[in-house]
Each structure stands twice: as structure tokens, then as C-alpha cells.
Design brief:
Blueprint lengths: L22 E7 H24 L9 H10 L4 H11 L7 H5 L3 E7 L8 H8 L4 E2 L2 E3 L4 E4 L12 E3 L5 E6 L16 E2 L8 E7 L7 E13 L2 E9 L13 H12 L7 E11 L6 E10 L8 H14 L2 H8 L8 E5 L3 H11 L16 H9 L1 E6 L13
Parallel strand pairs: 1-2, 2-3, 13-14
Antiparallel strand pairs: 4-5, 5-6, 6-11, 7-8, 7-9, 9-10, 10-11, 12-13, 14-15
Helix pairs in contact: 1-3, 6-7
Length: 397
Amino acid sequence: MCGLLPEHVYPDAMRSPGARTSAPVGAVFASGLLRAIKFLQLNWRELALDIESGTLNKRINDPSIKDCMAKILKPNPELADFIRFQCSKENWEGIITRIWPNTKYLDVIVTGAMAQYIPTLDYFSGGLPLACTMYASSECYFGLNLNPMCKPSEVSYTILPNMAYFEFLPHQPHSSGLTRDSLPELVDLAEVEVGKEYELVITTYAGLYRYRVGDILRVTGFHNSAPQFHFVRRKNVLLSIDSDKTDETELQKAVENASQLLREFNTSVVEYTSYADVKTIPGHYVIYWELLIKDSTNSPSEKVLSECSLAIEESLNSVYRQGRVRYNSIGPLEIRLVKNGTFEELMDYAISRGASINQYKVPRCVNFTPITELLDSRVVSTHFSPGLPRWTSETRR
């Protein structure tokens, strides 16, 4: 735990002469950085005690960590008091810059599905700039952002052509497998067209051949001859009850719209996921929300949360709303609030089954029974849409 506080972020009185003057704080994905902050919220007392005594908590039993920390850990009561003073405050707004005062920006991916973490990162960092520097996965590195300090909504990644052999499948919303007939549709790196969307296909040095990564990218331009892409969404992340189809981008936008109703209560959505519940007749969408309530005396009411459910429905496509209003083939959308820390437990479960902690992303749609059971066991309240979304035969998009 002591490794959370490197020398260059000590208070001025404790900073060594050779310390750096500024540095970023970051993680690969925004969710990973927020998980580290949550860990600090839960364990800052033990951290301060370790620093004060110059010893490690007994819970840390990894020999390599113990050996490493034994070489650098020394009693520092003044730093321990500083941590206690900052972390014991009820308000954690700006905690990153309060503990790491030399932090100038956050180095973290906040494009695609990670964009929904931006308000929470702004809260904990006091509004520090967000730098999205790279586009990569466990398969290989794909590209770099040559303008890392631009707004997250403006991020474009320049493909690194020496990392793999890149091909692009023109995006067809309902395409299935990469069959022999679809092979001619593959477009080479230099032949993509600005404004069009493609699914990324890679052949790697490690042996993957024409592997479909599952990312949908939009071409925004070229740097020299290398194309630049904006990450649009993951492919085929859908909710569906009847003839409706809701993808990740639409769901995220709907959640963002509904969360606006929480602003006056100083509350935000920390995490969410969903699934299509077809056990009921008719089936309905279920959205799991974990909230960050910054003022417990002014938390959103049952009525407000029900209105959030309706606001999500209002933001979904006309096929969904037609099913709700005209055909009654879809039931009222349901928000299930879960306990704080639920999505950390979900991550722990995924890692226990072999997921990489560096590559883990919260799934936006789930249907694996053990995961839904875990989520349902942490539900504290449920909130159904109180009415029907607007729809007429003329309201189509």
C-alpha cells in the first residue's frame, strides 16, 4: 500500500531535493484508476499506519512485495498524519490533487464506453485534464493519440502500421462471421475512406490470423499515410427483447441523459450494466446502477429514480418505444440500485475466472447467470418506469 505515495507527491516539507516537480496519475482504463481510488477509500487507515510505523500490514504476504518495500520503507509520522488529515474528510472531491499535489493530468483511456467515467474522474481530480495516449488491447498495440491533451470526444488514434498487419471490414450492423464470401470486403490500411466505419481485423506477429478485434472505428483523417480513427463502440453489444436492438453507444447515451436528473442531488452514476430480462411477460430491460451520492442528506428520491427509468426509455430508438407503446411487447424498464463496491466484486469475480486486471472492462450487457445472481444479491432498491415513452407512427429515427 505504501507504493501509492511516491516521493515526488509528498508535501513540500517532506519532499526530497531531487524530487520531480510534476507527474501524471493514471491507469490503462478509467475504471482501473477509479478502482484504485476506491481501494484508498477503504484502506487509507492501514496505509497511514504502515507509513507511520515503517512496517507492512500483515495482510500483505507476497514475498516479492515485502522484500521490495523493506528496502525503501521507513517510519514517517508526518506523512502519515498528512494522509489521515486528507482522507478522513467526508468530502473526497479533488482527493487526487490533495494527496498528489504535483499531479498535472490524468493519463487514462476515457474513449468509448470509458467516457461515462469522466464526471467521476473530474470529481476526484478537481477537474484535471484527461490525456488519452494510446489505443491497445491484449492482442497488440493499435495506435497512438498524437494530440493527447485534446478533449476526450475529439480523440483520434493514428494506426501504428508496424505493430501488426491491419485490415478493415466495412461495418455492417448485422453482419455475422467472417466467411469466405466476405473476405473480398476487407480493406487494406491505405484504402480506408474518411467518414466511413470499419471493424478492425488484425494479423499479428504472435500468430493471430485475420482476428476480428470487435471494435468499430470511424476514419477521421490521415497522418502522412497512416489513417486516424475515432473509437465508436464495441461490436454487437446489444439488448433485445422483441424486434428492438440496443447497442452499447445508444445505451450509454441513454444512461447519460437519465443521469442528468441526478445532478441537482449532487449524485452521479459510477458504474452500470444491463441485461434483457425475458423471465417476465413481456420481457423488459434491467439496468444496474451504482451511484456516487456526494451529499447523503440530499439523495435522489424514489420518484426521481423512477423518472430516470423513463428518461432512459425516452432516449432509446423508435423500435423500442414502439414495442413499449403500440405492441406492448416490452415491459417497463427497471433500474436496480446496487450497493457501493458491487462492480469491484464483479471485477474480482472476472479476474478469478482468468480475466486480465489490465484489460478488464465492465461489461455493459450481461447474461451469464453467476454474474446476474451476484448483481441481484447486492440490489438495495428497484425503480420501474412510471409511464410510457413518447411514440407515434411519425416519431421515428
